[in-house]
Design a protein that fits this description.
CATH architecture of the largest domain: 3-Layer(aba) Sandwich
Low-confidence stretches: 1-36
CATH class of the largest domain: Alpha Beta
Largest sheet: 7 strands, mixed
CATH topology of the largest domain: D-Maltodextrin-Binding Protein, domain 2
Mean pLDDT: 91
Strand content: 15-25%
Order of helices and strands: HEHEHEHEEEEEHHEHEHEEHHEHHEH
Number of helices: 13
Structural class: alpha/beta
Oligomer: single chain
Number of domains: 2
Distance between the termini: 15 Å
Length: about 400
């Protein structure tokens, strides 16, 4: 089971919410294309909206649906309710697996699905195709988030992109020398920092190993780190088993990662931009960057349930949450690049979008957004079966011992 929790990563949120972390998906190009071999049920997107139903039931990561109760400064729900008449009932999910399970009940209208859940929801028929014409703010979504391998099939969008982030390599500038340029620092060369290496605690981290092997072991033929046949998968697992001997701690709680880098217990490993910012603000001597091989990353998508009882309010919510002002608020509160290109003019920190590379599409081309591994290889191969996500979960438990 996936057991880490997506959380808002601002300093204010750290005071008010419990912590841990997980997120999203794509092909190794970051965007474009569809999920090869995926044949979802023949569901139709609505052609028009009717009268709103008076309420909407949402499943979301903590920090995405804020009404001021956690932080008086974070409230984008109240105005939505006033403007639309749709009362929001939100349930915070602890994992992508929980989101998938809850969506199957038919009790929820929409979900902020990550890439490690979205294809499961599409393939099972629990998520409906979305008519983007009914979401006016979709026109201003960054192009790199549209028609992604994790949120569309054959050109049909199954949701509205919300935000994105990269999984970076962070290191202590005093204790790691020379400065690393490659993920080899936490894989092949990890023994140099034995006991002080940290890694993200999730089965999807297997893709990080696959991404490294894609660059360093071309004979394996890895094209997409989320489309691994048995030989490729075994190689990634073997690399992670070797790495495990040098791991001091797998992180899921970002406050613990910050503390570990401040104390020196961790000197190198995976992180998010917002964690690097907070660690540096608290005095840790760290730098974070995308290594030469590129990096994995995450992009969340608001998806509508195929069984939605309040579909019109759900569509109103999708448009609201990616409207420029609200998307800017969510991005800053959570710590991610906003999806709406107009949001960058409305962040309170005028350098926010530059720091998070919000509009730098060349940057995102090197990010392999999280996707759901399925038997139908996402890289288009039809002569082999790829290892599905359930096997990733099992392998991750064995890797950690």
């Amino acid at each position: 089971m996936e057991y880490v929790v997506r959380i808002p990563l601002t300093a204010a949120a750290a005071v008010t919410l419990l912590l841990a972390a997980t997120a999203c998906g794509s092909s190794d190009s970051g965007s474009g294309g569809s999920s090869s071999g995926l044949n979802p049920p023949d569901l139709k997107a609505p052609t028009k909206l009717g009268a709103t139903e008076g309420r909407v039931n949402l499943i979301a990561w903590a920090g995405y649906v804020e009404d001021g109760s956690n932080d008086p400064e974070a409230d984008w729900v109240s105005d939505f309710e006033k403007r639309t008449g749709c009362q929001v009932d939100s349930r915070t999910a602890a994992s992508s697996d929980e989101m998938v399970k809850l969506m199957k009940t038919g009790q929820y209208d929409a979900v902020s699905a990550s890439g490690d859940a979205s294809l499961r929801l599409i393939a099972s028929g629990d998520a409906a195709p979305v008519n983007t014409d009914l979401v006016p703010n979709y026109r201003d979504i960054f192009s790199g988030l549209k028609d992604g391998a994790w949120n569309s099939v054959d050109g049909q969008m199954y949701g509205i992109p919300h935000g994105r982030g990269a999984n970076l390599l962070m290191y202590n500038t005093d204790k790691v020398s020379p400065a690393p340029t490659s993920w080899s620092a936490v894989f092949d060369d990890a023994s140099r920092y034995k006991g002080h290496v940290t890694a993200y605690d999730s089965p999807i981290y297997i893709a990080d190993a696959a991404l490294y092997l894609k660059a360093t072991e071309p004979g394996l033929g890895i094209k997409d780190p989320y489309a691994l046949d048995q030989k490729q998968f075994d190689a990634a697992v073997a690399l992670l088993r070797k790495q495990n001997a040098n791991i001091g701690e797998y992180w899921s709680d970002y406050l613990k990662e910050i503390s570990a880098f401040k104390s020196g217990d961790s000197v190198i490993g995976t992180t998010w931009q917002v964690i690097a910012n907070l660690a540096a603000d608290e005095g840790a001597k760290v730098k974070a960057f995308v290594p030469a091989e590129g990096a994995t990353g995450w992009s969340d998508t608001w998806m509508v349930s195929a069984k939605a009882k309040h579909p019109d309010c759900a569509y109103k919510w999708l448009d609201w949450i990616v409207s420029p002002k609200v998307n800017a608020q969510v991005a800053e509160y959570f710590g991610e690049a906003p999806a709406n290109s107009e949001a960058c003019d409305l962040t309170s920190d005028k350098n926010f979008c530059a720091t998070y590379h919000a509009s730098d599409e060349d940057y995102w081309k090197n990010i392999a957004f999280w996707n759901t591994p399925i038997e139908q290889c996402l890289d288009g191969r039809t002569d082999v079966r790829c290892v599905p996500y359930a096997k990733w979960v099992q392998a991750w438990t064995e890797i950690k011992g």
